[in-house]
Structure formats: C-alpha cells, structure tokens
Amino acid sequence: MAETIFKRIINGEIPCHKVYEDEHVLAFLDINPISRGHTLVIPKEPAETLDQLSDDASAAIGRVLPRLCRAVQRATGVQAYNVLQNNGAGAHQAVFHVHFHIIPKPNTREGLGVGWPARKLDHAAAAALADEMAALASE
Ligand code: 5GP
Q1: 11-39 pLDDT, tens per residue?
Q2: Rounded to two decimals, what is the model's pTM?
Q3: Tally of domains in the chain
Q4: Model confidence over 37-88: pLDDT tens digits?
C-alpha cells in the first residue's frame, strides 16, 4: 500500500488539528471542512478501505466513534450530523487510508448533501441476495 497523507499525519510528518488519539485511533479536523467541526477519524492500521480493516482496528474505531460524535456536537452546538465513510474512487474516496467523516449538519446549506435514488425492493431477488450475503458474512 502506497504511503498516504494520513499515514504521514499519523507519523507526525504533517501537522493536523488533533481532536483525539489513542494507541489505535487518531481524529483530527478536515483540512477542507464542509461545515464547522468536520472531523476525520482514522485507524492507525494502514488499510485502504473498510473491508480490509482488521477486527481489532475496527473495534477500536467503534469504541470511540460515538464519543467523538458527542464531542463534535457539544463543541459546535449542532445536534444533527452525518457519519460518512467512502470506499473506492467510484464512491468518492480521495485518500486511500480508511477514514470516517463526522460532519455537522447545521442547516440545509452546510454539511453533507445526500442523493438517495431509492427504488422499490424486489422481495424474491432480495431474499436470494440476503441469503448469499448471510453465508458470506459468516465465513
Ligand atoms: P474522502 O473523499 O477520501 O472520503 O475524504 C478525504 C478527506 O480528507 C477530504 O475531506 C479532505 O479534505 C481531507 N484531507 C485531505 N488531505 C488532508 C490533509 O492533509 N489534512 C487534513 N486534515 N485533511 C485532509
């Protein structure tokens, strides 16, 4: 895996506005925030996408993510927020080191805009798909 800008931030080679750090996790402010308080939460383990992250690193992120969301809420005074996690260039990932965005949504103009092209579920196809995914998830 090529060294990313986030790896350099973890290593202290590039500065950041640090919000939180422990043995496995680092959180810091996004350099181009889409709302005030936009925060990035990253594992120190160098995985490109979430599916490649170890169970231990995932657990470490999961343990602190709600606490960091509360810190963002309290510091900004904004209750609504989105947690965004992009995987792959096609899904708007620009930095190939796993990261979770915590993005306050103070109003309709700031924060994350979401496109949601919902369709009707085909229940027969859905049953087969869910069975296939269930088998894969328990491998
Ligand atoms: P992605 O599109 O990969 O989910 O988002 C990557 C995020 O990383 C972007 O929101 C971008 O502003 C942020 N980012 C990129 N380079 C840096 C950097 O050097 N420092 C910080 N703090 N954020 C960065």
Answers
A1: 999 999 999 999 999 999 999 999 999 99
A2: 0.97
A3: 1
A4: 999 999 999 999 999 999 999 999 999 999 999 999 999 999 999 999 999 9
Tens digits of residue pLDDT in 97-124: 999 999 999 999 999 999 999 999 999 9
| Phi, psi at 94, each rounded to 5° | -110, -30
Query: Is 32 inside any structural domain?
Result: yes
The CA 12 to ligand 1 mean position distance, Å, reads 16
Q: Which atom of ligand 1 is nearest to the CA of 34?
A: 10
Any domain includes 55: yes
CATH number, domain with residue 58:
3.30.428.10
Checking 85-92 for CB contacts under 8 A at 24+ apart, the result is 85/50, 87/49, 87/50, 87/51, 88/49
What is the whole-number distance in angstroms between the Cα of residue 95 and the centre of ligand 1? 7
| CA 69 to ligand 1 centroid distance, Å | 18
Show which residues are catalytic: 99
Matching residue, tokens 């590039």: 14
Specify the ligand 1 atom closest to the Cα of 17.
22
Domain ranges, residue 37: 5-114
